[in-house]
Design a protein that fits this description.
This protein is of the alpha/beta class. It is 41% helix and 16% strand. It has a 6-stranded parallel beta sheet, with helices on both faces. Strands 1-3-4-2 form a 4-stranded mixed beta sheet, covered by helices on one side. Helix 3 packs across helix 4 (102-113). The protein is globular. InterPro entries: KH_dom_type_1_sf (IPR036612), P-loop_NTPase (IPR027417), PhoH (IPR003714), PhoH2-like (IPR051451).
Length: 363
């Protein structure tokens, strides 16, 4: 139960008085602790209408009472300890300018539950790129590990479902590297195959046919850079957005190169792309092996490359999962449901609904 009060409000129960949430079985050993809230940060941590506070209590089963500049946390010892650590970490995040929301509260709790070496502040407070409207930062532990891998390796594969930020974060790292003069150009590429469509059957010039496939990359660029500067940078060759076929025969030096939708490459195309790597360059390959659109049952280069390159020095494979999906919460559950369905098909299990219908017919 959450209580929020201000000094002088006599209608609010005293924080030391027992509440419904404090009434436990005689065998329980409730704990209580207090966290001092910085007046300049309290509103950011509590959230509008105490939404962040309510999210924290829902996640941890602890009772939270705020009066003046003090938050009292009571409940079972593990819940009190966890809530105290989360609140202290949220205060540090707010001090660094990280926006606190119910979603980030949930992610902070999940990061602490993983018992890893990183705190929520270290994960959610990592600055990737300053842009119009705020700072781009990782929003999950998986995204933080992915960003760190890009810093630490020359070639990184970002594998995972839609909505995990694998392409967006890679592009943010590319723009940051260009700003810092770590590279002299950014090259963004995609295979021009999607949803079974073939370019030869589409109307228009080659540019008009290719443009829709590259549009998501343009959209991300406009989100990260001055839109008026992008055409000038593209005209100067500082930024290049092109189909994968345009990479053949080139050596790409001093570049940050991103191959998006890599599940739609053939093994031959993947080898061709990776061997374009030149001196002073970095490559990030992103894709989702559950979304292959190659025609005629062709093998995906993204599926076979891991078996070929696993263990090769300076190459890293980052796995993002449904826990890293930053979209509607239902998207993560949809991803999990499809993964379970595909696992059943690979095992040869019969679909549950069909089995149930056959059983009903026998009766």
């Amino acid at each position: 139960m959450i209580h929020v009060s201000t000094p002088g409000n006599d209608a609010v129960p005293d924080p030391g008085a027992p509440t419904d949430g404090d009434r436990r079985d005689p065998g329980d050993t409730p704990a209580r602790t207090a966290v001092q809230l910085d007046p300049d940060l309290a509103m950011a941590v509590l959230g509008a209408a105490d939404a962040n506070l309510r999210a924290l209590e829902d996640l941890l089963a602890a009772d939270l009472h705020v009066r003046g500049g003090t938050m009292t946390i009571s409940g079972e010892p593990p819940d009190v300890d966890r809530a105290s650590r989360v609140v202290s970490d949220l205060l540090r995040q707010a001090r660094r300018g990280v926006e606190i929301t119910p979603a980030s509260v949930r992610r902070s709790v999940e990061i602490l539950a993983d018992s890893g070496p990183l705190t929520p502040e270290e994960v959610l407070g990592t600055d990737v790129l300053s842009r119009r409207g705020g700072m781009i930062r990782p929003k999950t532990l998986g995204q933080k590990r992915y960003v760190d891998a890009i810093d630490d390796h020359t070639i990184v594969f970002g594998l995972g479902p839609a909505g995990t930020g694998k392409t967006y974060l890679a592009m943010a790292k590319a723009v940051a590297a260009l700003r810092a003069k770590e590279v002299s150009r950014i090259i963004l590429t995609r295979p021009a195959v999607e949803a079974g469509e073939r370019l030869g059957y589409l109307p228009g010039t080659l540019h008009e046919k290719i443009d829709p496939y590259l549009r998501p990359l343009y959209d991300s660029l406009h989100d990260m850079m001055d839109p008026e500067a992008i055409p000038k940078l593209m005209a100067a060759g500082v930024i290049e957005v092109a189909p994968l076929a345009y990479m053949r025969g080139r050596t790409l030096n001093d570049s940050f190169i991103i191959l998006d939708e890599a599940q739609n490459t053939t093994p031959e195309q993947m080898k061709m792309f990776l061997t374009r790597l030149g001196f002073g360059s970095k490559i990030v390959v992103t894709g989702d092996i559950t979304q292959i659109d190659l025609p005629g049952g062709q093998r995906s280069g993204l599926k076979v490359v891991r078996d070929i390159l696993s263990g090769v020095d300076d190459i890293h494979f980052s796995e993002l999962t449904s826990r890293d999906v930053i979209r509607h919460a239902l998207v993560g559950r949809i991803v999990d449901a499809y993964a379970k369905h595909e696992a059943r098909l690979e095992r040869g299990d019969r679909p549950t609904t069909g089995h149930r219908n056959r059983e009903q017919r026998r009766r």
